Amino acid sequence: MPNVDLHCHSTASDGLLPPAEVARRAAANGVEMLALTDHDDIAGLPAAREAAKACGMAFVSGVEISIEWEGTQIHVVGLNFDPDNAALNAGLAEIRSGRIDRARRMAAELEKVGIGNAFDGAMRYAENPNLISRAHFARYLVEAGVCKDVRSVFEAYLVPGRPGYVDHRWAGPAESVGWILGAGGVTDDTHTARYRISNGAMRRFLAEFRDLGGQAIEVVSGSHSLDDVGTFGRLAREYGFMASRGSDFHGPKESYVDLGMLGYLPDGLKPVWSVF
Ligand code: AMP
Ligand code: MN
Ligand code: MN
Ligand code: MN
What we know:
Blueprint: E1 4-5, H1 19-28, E2 33-36, H2 45-54, E3 58-69, E4 72-79, H3 86-97, H4 99-112, H5 118-123, H6 134-143, H7 150-156, H8 173-182, E5 186-189, H9 199-212, E6 216-221, H10 226-239, E7 242-246
Parallel strand pairs: 1-2, 2-3, 5-6, 6-7
Antiparallel strand pairs: 3-4, 4-5
Helix pairs in contact: 1-2, 6-7
Bound molecules: adenosine monophosphate (AMP) and manganese (II) ion (3 copies).
């Protein structure tokens, strides 16, 4: 089975390395096919594609779209689409547009619990200000000594019910799947085990996603345990999804799993890359 990594981030969203460096690091790690999947933005694709080509590594376009389903933030990855598609670009621009305003509201909430200067602090970490994300706030909270690492930030802050969390209007599942299908791509539900929803709700989401035209789920993921790999392998078979594999790499010191350093897909699943 080839070493394929179809989920990772660069400085075009909340990753720590520039797009070309992500591609070079992937190739150095033995990745044979890479997709860069920045949140809600595809500005990093040309540089990553060029660097991948120079390394002789196959490259497919990717994006991780933030959507909302029944009040939960879910991430859907689009793969192998036409990056020049107008409707996709307009849709992504629309979800990006509210992020700066949301960041100001997050900073105001943090101020209330005595954490000052968070807007400017987080912005310093955002190379692409339009993509200011909770990950940038988390880095600032670590820098400010509020938490010891990014993971602890997401236990105490920035999540529903905790200081610094604010609601935001993301795309809907139908819209986001529609943008990717319209641009000739494949959609893939990512790190499903991470969502804070019940099993029943997760199954309803998977059925809805499939009925909208979602074709794949991430079975092997940087945030899936071995148990999760088994569970989502079975769910892929049950729902007729193809299977994807992605590290969700954000940066060398921040991510547990480096590019391409993942287990392989369980037997008997159709890899999503078989249709690229
Ligand atoms: P946003 O798109 O602004 O809501 O930020 C979401 C980002 O925060 C994700 O893409 C991750 O990079 C990061 N994140 C969310 N939850 C966690 C977590 N539990 N541990 C580490 N990073 C997280
Ligand atoms: Mn992220
Ligand atoms: Mn995600
Ligand atoms: Mn991701």
